[in-house]
Amino acid sequence: MIDAKRGKLFAKLIKNIEVAARTGGADLDGNPTLYDAVQKAKKNSVPNTNIDRAVKRGAGLEAGGADYQTIMYEGYGPNGVAVLIECLTDNRNRAASDVRVAMTRNGGSMADPGSVSYLFNRKGVIIVPKADRAEDDVLDAVLEAGAEEVNDLGESFEVVSEATDLVAVRTALQDAGIDYDSADASFLPTMQVELDEDGARKIFKLIDALEDSDDVQNVFANFDVADDIMAKVDA
Could you tell me which residue ranges the TACO1/YebC-like second and third domain spans (predicted)? Predict the structure, then answer.
């Protein structure tokens, strides 16, 4: 089970690298999106040979690259939770079918384009492991670069910025010698639905089913689960 999940994660990280290399070329220094995709893959222990080949495939230096398209699907999960599903696929029909089946089998429903996405903002999100860092260290490093807020997630800090400031903020962390786990353009909800234990279990089941599809790259949803309820779900 763990191996299967790990394999799927590797495949998604590799796909990110291919797409970034196709869009902006194979040079990491000149292609910040590719740089971030490669860093994230390395942090998740994707072998370097797999990363190098993905860069070459994407940039057209090696055969076998697919023409992936980004498609966003919108829908509602149980308890009216808004769900944005970002797909990266070379087969639109398969992606649409996978998403629809996962949604309908797990208490969700598809929605028209634009009917859910307005509940989210496109943001840059950088995850910084706490290690021995104080929140003030992180704040000092990123505020001048355009960070909007730093949130304490327990094990790590979440640095939020405008998506267009992501590279500047990530670079500011590096200049300050602060390590980070990932730097991604993400969709953050403007309002959240509070869920009880039953609601939390249902939405996690739906997200798992969606992420099980090879075409689904990211799932964003506007729910919030209190720590005590989360502990029960995890148990």
Answer: 68-223
Tell me if 69-118+190-234 shares its fold with 124-189.
Answer: yes
Residues of the chain with pLDDT under 50: none
CATH T-level assignment (fold) for domain 69-118+190-234: Alpha-Beta Plaits (3.30.70)
For 124-189, CATH gives 3.30.70.980
Residues 6 or more apart whose Cβ sits within 8 Å of residue 111: 74, 75, 76
pLDDT score of 66: 80
Output DSSP code: residue 195. E
Report the pLDDT value the prediction gives residue 113, as an integer from 0 to 100.
Answer: 94
Residue 198: count other Cβ atoms within 10 Å of its Cβ: 11
What 3-state DSSP class applies to 133? coil
At residue 234, the pLDDT reads 87
For the CA atoms of 136, 140, 142, 145, the dihedral, rounded to the nearest 10 degrees, stands at 160
The confidence score (pLDDT) of residue 1 equals 67
